[in-house]
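Everyone, study these two lines:
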Amino acid sequence: MNGVSSDDERKAYTDLAASVTSLLGECRVVRHWSAHDHEAPFGRNLFMVAGFAGWGMTKSVVASAIIAEAVEGRAHPAADAVSPSRVPGVDEMGALARENVTVGREFVEGHLTSRRGKAHEDSVAGGTCTHLGCETKWNTAEGTVDCPCHGSRYDRHGEVIYGPASKDIEGSS
């Protein structure tokens, strides 16, 4: 979205629809979603992809090609480059460091904020994640309370939708 920053995620969906319409003509939005990660038990012949970081439409195509080759018993040329067991190269260390600085900043700001424990405007859930105490943010488009540090998500009543948080937000005022 060209660096658009907004606390109201609905604007991102509106901007995306306008962009598609300007490029391809009139369109009708049937569905939209964000940050819906699903967990599955690991086992034999189970393939899983994750960590698209906003690039799901592109990276999922590559992931599906890698998985299709693996199912057929062949190695895809990009498989080693995206393997979770690979050792990061020097050029990847900068991105890794920047991401961790962002998480660290959110963590510190969450512990210093005046919002600690106070409910969001459209929610009875408080402003503190039960995972590591980062300040949560109200996600208007999804109607959820989201943690920017590690991606925990709560419903408007403070019940965990998915973690890493495993404890509901309680005692919100």
Remarks:
- The beta strands are 137-139, 144-146, 153-154, 160-162.
- The radius of gyration is 19 Å.
- The helical segments are 9-24, 56-71, 79-82, 90-112.
- Confidence is low (pLDDT under 50) at residues 1-5.
